[in-house]
Structures are given as C-alpha cells and as structure tokens.
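ARCHIVE CARD
CATEGORY: sequence design from structure
SOURCE FIELD: tokenized fold
FIELD CONTENT:
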C-alpha cells in the first residue's frame, strides 16, 4: 500500500511543497493528495490589484499539477483528527493520511475588533477581494473608502485603490505611525506617494469598532466610509487549535526547526500556519517570503523522514519588506540580522519592476519547485531516522 501524503491548502507554501514532494518521491511508494477550497491558485500578493478592478490571469490547479501525479481534491477543510489521522471536509467526507502537511495559511483578523467581520471588507482571499471589487465598482465619484491598518497590506491596498480610482476619497487609519518600521529614506518616499495619490492618513488612531457606515476610533472620532477595508493583521483558521495539535496562543502550530509539529511529528507545517523561530532568533512573520523558506524546509524534512535520507537545513531568514505603491512605484526595504531596517532601500520604478518580476516568476516556480535540481524520485525506507545535515 502506498504511503499517503495529504497537503492541506494550495497557496504559496502548499503548492510549492506538493510539487517538490511529487518531484522527489517515487510514485510507486507515495500518493500525494492536495486539498484546497478553490479550484484556482490564488496569487494572494496581487489581491489588492484584483480588488482595485484589475483582471488577473486564472491559474487552475489542475494545470499547475498536470503531469506530477498529484491528486487534487476541491473541498474546504472543516477539521483534522491527528489521533486517527483523518481530515474531514465540508461535505462530511473523511480523507485518511499517513503524513500530513498543513498549509492552510491565514486570513484577515476581522474578529479582533467589534463589527469588522460584519461590516468590513478585506483582501486576504480571492473571494473577499472580489467582494470589495464589486463594492468599489458600485461607488460613484467622491465615494469614501477607509482602509484600516498600517502595515504592508493596508499600504498596498490604499495606494492601489487610490491610483486605480482617483475619483474616490481614500483614507487610511493606523494605530501607530505609518511605515514606522521603515528607514528614513523609505518612509519619506512612502509619504511622497501618499501625497501624490491624495490619500488622507490618520496616525495614532486605534479603531474601536466598525459600523455599516464607517468606523469609530477609541477616542470616539467617527470616520464615515462607503467601504471600510480591514487590513490590520492576519489570523489563522481555528482548525489546528480545535485539534490535538500543540498551538501558540494565536492558533499557529508550534513546530521544531525542521517544521514538524512538536506534539505530532507525522504532521508537518509550512507558511502562515507555522510558528517557527527564524535565523534572527524571532518568529518568522506571516508572509509570502516565509512561506517559501518554510515550505522548502518542510518538503526537505518529509523526504528525509520518509526515505531515510539526510535532511538538508534550509535557511529561515527575514530579509525585508517589498511594498507596492500602485503599478509604477514601490519600496524594497532591507533589514539587518536583528530585523531592523537598514538605511538603504530600493525605491520608485526600479523597485516596482523588481517586484513585478518576482510576482511574475512565482507561479512558474510553483510549477517547477526544484528547477535546476536532478529529478530523483526516492523510494520509501523501512527505517526512517530523523537526521540533519547543514548546507
């Protein structure tokens, strides 16, 4: 009987990992099934573009996985039973596994403030971005859009909407200072872009609740809006927390350096669902970059554990932030080993072209996860020791 590997989620981490496993494990010994709620691969890094009215190319997972031997199951995961090694999906069907790779990612943290889940839009998923797109399309000239948050998603969403719809009044409210983590040059560039796009910024403004017609700050200040966009942080689905897996207070699964669950070593985790300490001694942030590094380590560990081969050690760095400011402007802020912003940052059209190139190559790399490496499909090992070799 083949060893059953089930991958939950086909975002950046799940799709890459599944492809890497299919390329490196022998089909006679292993069966790989990917479970995903949507039939298409969602380029989450482009969801703010989708919301702003831009059309993105569809990328069906069947095409991405064509020829790999990967079985695709379109279904929404409702629960995981790690004791009996089963996954239950929304229609009640159960999928059995021998090895589980959990990459269900994250969504907008809309439950941290009253009314956000009921009244706010977000861009953390393709369906959510499309709902916001429909709402924005219904707004006439001088319609008001309030974006809540001060980090990458909020900045990218506000600038994209303002550039695509200059007839709208776009405001951004953040509990701290906008781009406060950026170096001085990058932050000046950010505010130049905000001024150019006529975005009104409300700093040091903590939102207490979201209402149907806007939001109210802690100090009682009311912000009227025809569309309120919540971009103030991410949260992971509660599925892991309701299983027997060891999780952090925020619901992320606690893993060792090789991306194994600390409570259930037959469960591996990658992407935003994983709580892992990076090379700088701090937890890796929820980001596409972290998804790439953790998925490389998780797939390498699974191959090693199941075939008895040495497990290569993948670096888990945090190198910086790449922020789009519309289609022709961006910032790439590098950080040092302590995650502090360096004084230098790539800015303007050059930074935008670099980010566009990265976004363009991402879908291709997901289809070719081990490009340049020999396609050796390893057989299952009877004895599977956990060994590590640094590279």
């Amino acid at each position: 009987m083949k060893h059953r590997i089930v991958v939950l989620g086909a975002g950046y981490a799940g799709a890459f990992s599944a492809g890497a496993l299919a390329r490196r494990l022998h089909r006679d010994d292993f069966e790989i099934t990917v479970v995903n709620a949507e039939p298409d691969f969602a380029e989450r890094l482009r969801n703010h573009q989708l919301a702003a009215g831009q059309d993105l190319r569809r990328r069906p997972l069947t095409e991405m996985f064509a020829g790999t031997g990967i079985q695709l199951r379109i279904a929404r995961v409702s629960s995981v039973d790690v004791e009996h090694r089963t996954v239950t999906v929304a229609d009640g069907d159960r999928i059995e596994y021998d090895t589980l790779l959990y990459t269900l990612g994250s969504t907008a943290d809309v439950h941290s403030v009253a009314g956000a889940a009921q009244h706010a839009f977000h861009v953390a998923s393709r369906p959510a971005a499309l709902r916001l797109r429909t709402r924005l399309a219904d707004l006439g000239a001088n319609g008001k859009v309030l974006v809540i948050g001060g980090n990458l998603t909020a900045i990218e969403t506000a600038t994209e909407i303002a550039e695509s719809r200059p007839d709208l009044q776009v405001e951004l409210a953040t509990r701290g200072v906008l781009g406060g983590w950026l170096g001085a040059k990058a932050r000046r560039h950010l505010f130049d872009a905000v001024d150019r796009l006529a975005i009104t910024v409300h700093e040091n403004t903590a939102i207490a609740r979201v209402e149907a017609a806007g939001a109210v700050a802690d100090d009682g200040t009311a912000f009227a809006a025809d569309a309120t966009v919540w971009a103030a942080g991410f949260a992971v689905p509660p599925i892991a927390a309701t299983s027997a897996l060891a999780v952090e207070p925020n619901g992320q699964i606690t893993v060792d350096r090789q991306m194994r669950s600390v409570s259930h070593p037959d469960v591996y985790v990658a992407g935003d669902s994983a709580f892992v300490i990076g090379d700088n001694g701090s937890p890796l942030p929820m980001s596409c970059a972290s998804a790439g590094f953790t998925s490389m380590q998780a797939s390498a560990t699974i191959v090693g554990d199941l075939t008895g081969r040495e497990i290569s050690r993948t670096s888990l760095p945090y190198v910086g932030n790449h922020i789009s400011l519309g289609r022709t402007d961006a910032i790439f802020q590098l950080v040092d080993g302590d995650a502090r912003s360096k004084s230098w940052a790539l800015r303007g059209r050059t930074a935008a072209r670099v980010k566009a190139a990265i976004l363009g190559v991402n879908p291709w790399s997901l289809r070719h996860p081990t490009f340049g490496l020999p396609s050796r499909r390893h057989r299952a090992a009877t004895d599977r020791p956990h060994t590590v070799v640094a590279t």
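CARD ANNOTATION: The domain at 3-106+236-390 is CATH 3.50.50.100 (FAD/NAD(P)-binding domain). The CA atoms of residues 25 and 303 lie 7 Å apart.
SHELF: design records, drawer C
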